[in-house]
């Protein structure tokens, strides 16, 4: 059991540590990040319950609508909504890179609990593949979401509502693409490899841009 839990939790912690340590200019309070991680972890259960109820009620006419469109949208919406109401106006969200950290944190909280439940059901044989795909993809969806939240709050040259909308729409689109590829039986791996390479490139580009905005933000405050 300890080995299984370690295998389920380790990928999320490793990915979060990577994004956290990239922030060399300022240190975000660990307590707030832990709270955000826990928000994501707790979200797993109402989302799974909602998915179960709607499935049992036969709301969805086909598997694509249920497993791709609905699942992708509802997961990202709940994470976006919690960040918007609980974190966006928080006093400790005080620089552009913070959004990225909070986005990664809430996504990895969700992905970690989901991973624990999955490995408890199907065993350790799938641990490596899940670390490469669901856990890392959730982390990168969160990075993209958090980047746009940071841009909405701290960029003077962007429209607030547009960036907050992008914080939801961008990860939803990426998540839909990810789940669409998984829905292809037999040949999904040939599409997943280039998609994951693109997702890592896109996510790391947002990390680089968020770090640049952080440097600009700190430089501006030094002048003041």
TrEMBL record:
<feature type="transmembrane region" description="Helical">
    <location>
        <begin position="127"/>
        <end position="150"/>
    </location>
</feature>
<keyword id="KW-0812">Transmembrane</keyword>
<feature type="transmembrane region" description="Helical">
    <location>
        <begin position="64"/>
        <end position="88"/>
    </location>
</feature>
<feature type="transmembrane region" description="Helical">
    <location>
        <begin position="187"/>
        <end position="204"/>
    </location>
</feature>
<feature type="transmembrane region" description="Helical">
    <location>
        <begin position="100"/>
        <end position="121"/>
    </location>
</feature>
<feature type="transmembrane region" description="Helical">
    <location>
        <begin position="33"/>
        <end position="52"/>
    </location>
</feature>
<comment type="function">
    <text>Involved in the degradation of specific anti-sigma factors.</text>
</comment>
<feature type="transmembrane region" description="Helical">
    <location>
        <begin position="6"/>
        <end position="21"/>
    </location>
</feature>
<dbReference type="InterPro" id="IPR026898">
    <property type="entry name" value="PrsW"/>
</dbReference>
<keyword id="KW-0472">Membrane</keyword>
<dbReference type="Pfam" id="PF13367">
    <property type="entry name" value="PrsW-protease"/>
</dbReference>
<keyword id="KW-0378">Hydrolase</keyword>
<keyword id="KW-1133">Transmembrane helix</keyword>
<comment type="similarity">
    <text>Belongs to the protease PrsW family.</text>
</comment>
<dbReference type="InterPro" id="IPR023596">
    <property type="entry name" value="Peptidase_PrsW_arch/bac"/>
</dbReference>
<protein>
    <recommendedName>
        <fullName>Protease PrsW</fullName>
        <ecNumber>3.4.-.-</ecNumber>
    </recommendedName>
</protein>
<feature type="transmembrane region" description="Helical">
    <location>
        <begin position="162"/>
        <end position="181"/>
    </location>
</feature>
<keyword id="KW-1003">Cell membrane</keyword>
<keyword id="KW-0645">Protease</keyword>
